[in-house]
Amino acid sequence: MLEQMEALFLLKLALLRNRLRRGQFLPGLFAALTVISSALGSAVMFAIFFVIGLKMAASRPLDFVLLLSDVVVLFYILFIIIGFLVELQVSEIIDFRKMLYLPISLRMVFLMNMGISLITPSSAFMVSAVAGFVLGSSFPLGAAMLAGLLFLPAFLWMIGAWLYFARSWVA
Q1: Helix, coil or strand: residue 37
Q2: How far apart are CA 87 and CA 95, in angstroms?
Q3: Each residue's pLDDT tens digit, 122-152
Q4: pLDDT attached to residue 44
Q5: Which of 2, 62, 148, 168 is the most interior residue, by most CB within 10 Å?
Q6: Are the C-beta atoms of 139 and 54 separated by less than 8 Å?
Q7: DSSP for 78-137, written as a single string
Q8: What angle, rounded to 10 degrees, do the helices at 121-141 and 148-170 form?
Q9: Quick one: how far is CA 136 from the chain centroid?
Q10: What is the DSSP code (8-state) at residue 119?
């Protein structure tokens, strides 16, 4: 199964390389800048929310912690919806229907599409912000705050499942 996933990943890279060679340099440059800015933005978000958790969580009531968590989730869902609407306008390099003709199982196609849908710049910001806040607030509020790290993958998987359903419904 891993060999098939590696082959599909290499196929996607080869198609992307051919797209760049055919004169579509600007989309490749934009993708590279998106990856770089997303990595830098994630590091900045981690640092900012770590300091917020470290400094503000101890001096504020727990209602503040809940409100801050709700704001982060709200912005994440907003950016996910914007990304979904933008994605409707863009065609994929490898189409889901074309993948079904390959000798791979339907379960692997589902898991790969589901995993790919979770890898977005907004998810990188969300994971880094929540991880920074949870780690920062675990010092003044105790180790019980670290349980928030366990809920993060479940939340991301839940939003990814909703997006996967919405994509199949729209398509």
Answers
A1: helix
A2: 13
A3: 888 888 999 999 899 888 888 888 888 899 8
A4: 94
A5: 148
A6: yes
A7: HHHHHHHHHHTTS--SS-HHHHTTSSS-HHHHHHHHHHHHH-SHHHHHHHHHHHHHHHHH
A8: 160
A9: 22
A10: -
